[in-house]
Amino acid sequence: MTDSFYVNWTTQLRKGLLELAILNTLDGVSLYGYDIVRRLGEVDGLVITEGTVYPILSRLKNERYVDTYIEESPEGPARKYYRLTRSGRNELERMNEHWLRLHDAIGTLRKERAR
Amino acid sequence: MIDLTPSARQRFDDYFWRLRHSLRRASPTEADDVEQSVREHIEVALAGVPAPVGGEQLAEVLDRLGAPDGWVPADDRSAMQRMVQQVTDRLRVGPEEWRLAYVTFGLFLLALLLMPVGIGFFLMIASFLVSRAYLDFMETKEEAPGARRWLIYPPIGFFLVIATAFFIVGPAGPVLAWGIGDDGFLRLLEESRLRAPYYHEQFVAGAAVAALGTWWLLASLLGMVFLPAVRYIFKPLLTRVRRTHFLGLTIIGALSLALGFVLLRPWISQLW
Fold first, then answer.
1. How much is the average pLDDT of B161-188?
2. pTM of the model as a whole
3. Do residues B249 and B216 touch, judged by C-beta distance below 8 A?
4. Domain edges within chain A
5. B77 falls within a domain
6. Is residue A87 less than 8 Å (CB to CB) from chain B?
């Protein structure tokens, strides 16, 4: 496996998982864009370019998985907060279940190889 | 609004040009939303930095955001599908300013269709009020309507045509409508003892011009006294109108009144 193949694969994987990561970040809390980016950035290897998050947030909003509201901030400009909608929570549950199944499947394959 | 040095401003504008370019195939709603979010991100990231923010500090934030070119996946939908999606997006979850614009235009079209039934009149008033609310909303945001003016201005234009017609004709209109009828000026003339070797049409024309001239004099006076109200009602057409503009109407009114008197002179002279 060459470096470029690995880099390409991890990039694709990150892109694919970013929606799930964003929805999980918003589970139970309302956060503004910068805060979401910051929290995702704390997870090693998840976000390379911060801007990638915004088109995904916009798409999630269009799909009605998240909605937004504006709140004044004493520290600067008014901020747009994102929060999960009911359908967003349902979708997140389904996605998390699917992710766990994938994770378990890979784990099973690895265990079989180890035996 | 971030206070930037000229070089940082240039960099900022370039970045947003690239951002808009990279989002050109996304729906306008999504593009507006992303652009607004990225602006907010930059403002929050630079909130603690003393103004004016320099190019290097801005560059740090922009570098972390990354090049916008790779943000949006290629859109392989047909042009028609994208257009339908754009319209439904804007009506469904678009930013408030776009939704208001579409609601305004929708109400306007419905009002035109239902005008013969009568309810269209009320819908027209509603579409006018929503469009004015939109203009005020954009004003508070210090934003120009941009392309949305094509959706917002039709009901305002419709209202302004009616309001302008009323302002020009005013109460002189009903007077003229009555005056040029069979029981109007000519009947009045016949019942009076005034006689003159001229065409009766001259009497009608003189009375009409004098009536209009009188109204224009009065209207110009009202316009000068209630200037803010005129600006508000005729917004955005007459937002810059001044009292001197009404002086023009005063002169036209005075000239019309004088012309009316000239035309009516053969009859007026008999009064003395």
1. 77
2. 0.50
3. yes
4. 3-114
5. no
6. no
Instruction: Decide if B165 is inside a domain.
Output: no
Share of chain B above pLDDT 70, in %: 85
Residues with Cβ within 8 Å of A53's Cβ and at least 6 positions away in sequence, in order, are A18, A22, A33, A36, A37, A40, A47
Indicate the residue of B29, B37, B93 with minimum beta-carbon distance to A54. Answer: B37
Minimum distance, in Å, between the CA of residue B208 and any CA atom of chain A: 58
Q: Please compute the mean of the pLDDT values over residues B212-236 and round it to a whole number.
A: 86
> Mean pLDDT, chain B, as a whole number?
80
**A33 interfaces chain B, CB cutoff of 8 Å:** yes
Q: Which residues of B102-114 are buried (b: 16+ CB within 10 A; e: fewer)?
A: bbbbebbebbbee
Residues in chain B whose Cβ is within 8 Å of chain A: 23, 26-27, 29-30, 33-34, 36-38, 40-41, 43-45, 47, 64-68, 70-72, 89, 92-93
B220 plus B250 within the same structural domain: yes
Assigned CATH for A3-114: 1.10.10.10
Residue B11 resides in a domain = yes
Q: How far is A114 from chain B (nearest CA, A)?
A: 38
